[in-house]
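A sample copied in:

***
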Amino acid sequence: MKKIIGYTLLIVGIVAACSIVRKEKLDKDAEQFLADFKNVLTKSDAEILAMFFSGQTEEEILSGITVLQNKDTTVSTSIRYAEATAKWEDGYLLIDVPVQIDAKGEEMVVKHLTLKLIQKKARKFYINRFGGEEVYTAYQSLKYQVENRDLLAKRLQALKVFYDRAMELQKNFDSVVWYTQFKDTTYYFAVNGTFVLDSLNGKSPTTFKMGLVHENGKIVVPVEYDLIGNPSINIPDAVEVKRDGKVGYFDLTGKMLVPAEYTWVVPYEDGESKALVKKDTVFGWLDASYQFHENFPSEKAEKYIREFTYLTEKKFVFGGDHQQLIVNLAQNERYNYESRGIIVAPGFLVNNNIFDWVQTDFITLKPNEDKIFSFGNAYKENSNQFSFNLSESFDLLLNSIETRYIGGRGEFYTTSKINVVDKNQRFISSVDVWGNEGFTFKRVNENLYQASYLAYYEEGPSPTFKEINLPAYSFFKFENSKLERVASSRLFGFTKYVKMDSSYITGNFKTYDYSLPENQREGTSTMLSRETLEYMRIEILASYGYLITNEVYLENFQMAGNLDDQKYYPKTLDYQTHYTRASEIDKYNLDFLAKILGPIAKPI
């Protein structure tokens, strides 16, 4: 069982959002922390881990730390502490420090280590998030490149034919930037203008036009579009083209099937329909000849769109089974060795805020080339749930993306967010959540909403909680067409906002009890342990000045920030004093817990 470092808060966002303050030089807090960090790198694992208050596992943290300790003679790292920068953001101190990676006979690489710090007891800082993935991946990549030069040389030789043909085709264009192979034919992505990859996801202005060229030189798609997609990713034997935010389709013979006039195109073969489309605010459909017809072809088709079935009925997998990837022709040996492929997402996934237009870092090696290890995404898998009817005007859609990353400190990474969309299927806003298993969303009162789910990280086991899989709760307000997270300094945030019932304390829990012999520690339970419920009760009382004498509780509460409200109240052990101070909801929940636990028998 993996051990979790610290007691990660299930309710993220415990500090009220503040404006970002950028600093040209490090303040004393960041300077001192980096000095401590530099010193601890030579210490034991236990001393290193003591600097963390994080949901990351020991394995994940230490694998990243190891590359900074220069234990390997093949590759070395140098942390450029003098070039570090820091800023405050949403209550966290974010430190960014360059790391130089060197290997004999190879070009130096510089990547960035990011440390997200949270301030806890006695103004001490802990690492809440160790962002060493970029450094770790580059380190392992360079190490492998040094150790496998012969294999890599053969790999690059095999790619030479594509470079050579691209150079020939480039005589007719400003550049040829990508290629893809489909049904034994290679297609090249030609560009006129200055190509900037980041501009494709809106990170900078687009200064070029793109087209598609057959390996024999024939123009398949004129060089008139902002972006060309992967073959067959949405419509068989066709590519999606994008221009001015609208999409259309060409088949691979060069015939325009659908002009670039639509917000999105969703395949839907039923009766005379070939696809359902959205054209600005108008829904419609395309027949077998790809001719446009306004409105829906049937009630069934309308339901398919209105109820988001086109997003929820199946998972969307990018990169699976070595899907036809686009390969970047950047003249960089390491880039090709790392096999970073590209997938251009269909418009209906982009306009619903599920994917950006361009997804990168996919492994391009075929199964018979697995002997050449590669770094990158094996696949990205998206699943969606229609979760809640927010109002007469807005719906909520939960989407999750699981990424399998090969060659990193971890293997599977999952992100989730709740999207707000209007009744015309137009994306309005989104907010991140940290889990999708068992996801529920409900209205608590007129303007307060509760999301619950199992978090991607596990809260325990710890000396405080026996339960490993405690559910996470997040609370939101809906204002100005946006969901906004409501902050809570309590670990069990629902005690502040909701009158509790049995649903908050029962479930199918996995447990791990440190007090038992090691071979008997794992178990299950259908109700939260007495220790967890007692913690919940004291957490409520602590908000009103309850005097905490238990050192473990005291440290946890101080680190979580849920003693901040105590400054308004004289500290005392008298239960009735705190009960009188409590809000109506807190009084209800204290009564609820007292029926289960009885009175507090002794000071906590």
